């Protein structure tokens, strides 16, 4: 039953406004931006019918009593049931009778307490909505003036202005102290130096398809396909394979040359075939998703998106730099080859960028 179903004369007087609604402020019709206030309060049957309230009270008392009985049952089971006795319980099969009894009684005891408390709160405790008005966060001018005066008084009493030696050495100590934290950074290991600046790519090194382990011909790369490549000579059983592939992995894509907007990109490609680092410049996840229509590649980690038709610049997401491009060409046999190493660090490489 809702308050709409209850005759107004049955509503508690303190919860009815002059319009017969619950005691809440309604929106000011002359001002559409006024606080609309709370919706009219809906009274529960227990609020207006003492017999219903008594029924709820009995249900709550019954649940609490059930909890007490279950607790007694728990203790009795613990004392009375032998540890080696087993019983058959569908669908668990044969299990320890003691464990079963303890679990059941404890579960019922806890459930009954929770259910009783919830029923009590939902049916008998006050559920009148209360608006708690917010107050301005900014302090009153007199409070601010007092805080400022107290601060000045404190500074005067500490004699910081007069005792310049103490003041200056204190500021020096506070400024230098964080340096000890910086020194601890050394424990993170040796600095990478320029290791990320160099990869296995060098002039004349063939691009090898990572799936087939065969050198890539220009004719193997179809428009719209995405191929992953590694430098020739790098094999999975190599000791430093993971380290090297993490720097040298390439994405190979063939674009229509007229779709390439960036002039340098066009000059570094071969008949529209472009080679970019596969390592995201955000935090180094491998990029794996290619959208053929838009020429966008997407990093699955945090959704950085790069436009391969425009120098692999970042068009969305947290990556801060375009993907580094590798200059490629073809050798006399028609195989794709590198024309040198990357000219900028791959991956995030924050410390190596200017
Ligand atoms: S690592 Fe690629 S978007 Fe974060």
Automatic annotation (TrEMBL):
<protein>
    <recommendedName>
        <fullName>Cytochrome bc1 complex Rieske iron-sulfur subunit</fullName>
    </recommendedName>
</protein>
<feature type="transmembrane region" description="Helical">
    <location>
        <begin position="165"/>
        <end position="185"/>
    </location>
</feature>
<comment type="subunit">
    <text>The cytochrome bc1 complex is composed of a cytochrome b (QcrB), the Rieske iron-sulfur protein (QcrA) and a diheme cytochrome c (QcrC) subunit.</text>
</comment>
<keyword id="KW-0679">Respiratory chain</keyword>
<dbReference type="Pfam" id="PF00355">
    <property type="entry name" value="Rieske"/>
</dbReference>
<dbReference type="InterPro" id="IPR014349">
    <property type="entry name" value="Rieske_Fe-S_prot"/>
</dbReference>
<keyword id="KW-1133">Transmembrane helix</keyword>
<feature type="domain" description="Rieske">
    <location>
        <begin position="242"/>
        <end position="337"/>
    </location>
</feature>
<feature type="transmembrane region" description="Helical">
    <location>
        <begin position="59"/>
        <end position="81"/>
    </location>
</feature>
<feature type="transmembrane region" description="Helical">
    <location>
        <begin position="101"/>
        <end position="121"/>
    </location>
</feature>
<keyword id="KW-0560">Oxidoreductase</keyword>
<dbReference type="GO" id="GO:0046872">
    <property type="term" value="F:metal ion binding"/>
</dbReference>
<keyword id="KW-0479">Metal-binding</keyword>
<dbReference type="InterPro" id="IPR017941">
    <property type="entry name" value="Rieske_2Fe-2S"/>
</dbReference>
<dbReference type="GO" id="GO:0051537">
    <property type="term" value="F:2 iron, 2 sulfur cluster binding"/>
</dbReference>
<keyword id="KW-1015">Disulfide bond</keyword>
<feature type="region of interest" description="Disordered">
    <location>
        <begin position="1"/>
        <end position="38"/>
    </location>
</feature>
<dbReference type="GO" id="GO:0016705">
    <property type="term" value="F:oxidoreductase activity, acting on paired donors, with incorporation or reduction of molecular oxygen"/>
</dbReference>
<dbReference type="GO" id="GO:0005886">
    <property type="term" value="C:plasma membrane"/>
</dbReference>
<keyword id="KW-0408">Iron</keyword>
<dbReference type="InterPro" id="IPR036922">
    <property type="entry name" value="Rieske_2Fe-2S_sf"/>
</dbReference>
<keyword id="KW-0001">2Fe-2S</keyword>
<dbReference type="Pfam" id="PF19297">
    <property type="entry name" value="QcrA_N"/>
</dbReference>
<keyword id="KW-0411">Iron-sulfur</keyword>
<keyword id="KW-0249">Electron transport</keyword>
<keyword id="KW-0812">Transmembrane</keyword>
<comment type="function">
    <text>Iron-sulfur subunit of the cytochrome bc1 complex, an essential component of the respiratory electron transport chain required for ATP synthesis. The bc1 complex catalyzes the oxidation of menaquinol and the reduction of cytochrome c in the respiratory chain. The bc1 complex operates through a Q-cycle mechanism that couples electron transfer to generation of the proton gradient that drives ATP synthesis.</text>
</comment>
<keyword id="KW-1003">Cell membrane</keyword>
<comment type="similarity">
    <text>Belongs to the Rieske iron-sulfur protein family.</text>
</comment>
<dbReference type="InterPro" id="IPR045603">
    <property type="entry name" value="QcrA_N"/>
</dbReference>
<keyword id="KW-0472">Membrane</keyword>
<keyword id="KW-0813">Transport</keyword>
<dbReference type="GO" id="GO:0004497">
    <property type="term" value="F:monooxygenase activity"/>
</dbReference>
């Amino acid at each position: 039953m809702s308050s709409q179903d209850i005759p107004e004369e049955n509503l508690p007087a303190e919860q009815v406004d002059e319009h017969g609604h619950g005691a809440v402020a309604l929106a000011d019709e002359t001002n559409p931006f006024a606080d609309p206030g709370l919706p009219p309060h809906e009274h529960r049957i227990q609020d207006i019918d003492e017999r219903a309230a008594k029924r709820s009270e009995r249900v709550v008392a019954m649940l609490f009593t059930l909890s007490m009985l279950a607790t007694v049952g728990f203790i009795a089971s613990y004392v009375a049931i032998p540890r080696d006795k087993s019983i058959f319980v569908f669908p668990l099969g044969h299990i320890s009778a003691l464990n079963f009894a303890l679990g059941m009684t404890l579960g019922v005891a806890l459930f009954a307490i929770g259910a009783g408390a919830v029923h009590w709160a939902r049916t008998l405790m006050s559920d009148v909505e209360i608006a708690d008005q917010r107050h301005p966060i900014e302090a009153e001018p007199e409070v601010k003036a007092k805080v400022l005066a107290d601060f000045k008084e404190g500074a005067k009493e500490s004699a910081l202005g007069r005792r310049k030696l103490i003041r200056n050495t204190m500021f020096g100590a506070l400024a230098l102290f964080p340096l000890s934290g910086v020194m601890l950074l050394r424990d993170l290991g040796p600095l990478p130096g320029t290791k990320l600046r160099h990869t296995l790519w060098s002039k004349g090194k063939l691009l090898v398809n990572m799936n087939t382990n065969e050198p890539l011909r220009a004719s193997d790369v179809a428009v719209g396909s995405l191929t992953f490549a590694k430098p020739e000579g790098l094999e999975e059983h190599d000791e430093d394979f993971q380290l090297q592939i993490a720097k040298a992995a390439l994405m190979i894509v063939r674009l229509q040359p007229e779709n390439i907007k960036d002039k340098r990109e066009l000059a570094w490609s071969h008949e529209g075939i472009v080679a970019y680092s596969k390592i995201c410049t955000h935090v180094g996840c491998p990029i794996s998703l290619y959208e053929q229509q838009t020429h966008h590649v997407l990093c699955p980690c945090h959704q950085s998106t790069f436009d391969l038709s425009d120098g692999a610049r970042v068009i969305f997401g947290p990556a801060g730099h375009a993907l580094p491009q590798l200059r490629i060409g073809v050798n006399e046999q028609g195989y794709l080859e590198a024309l040198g190493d990357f000219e900028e660090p791959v991956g995030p490489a924050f410390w190596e960028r200017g």
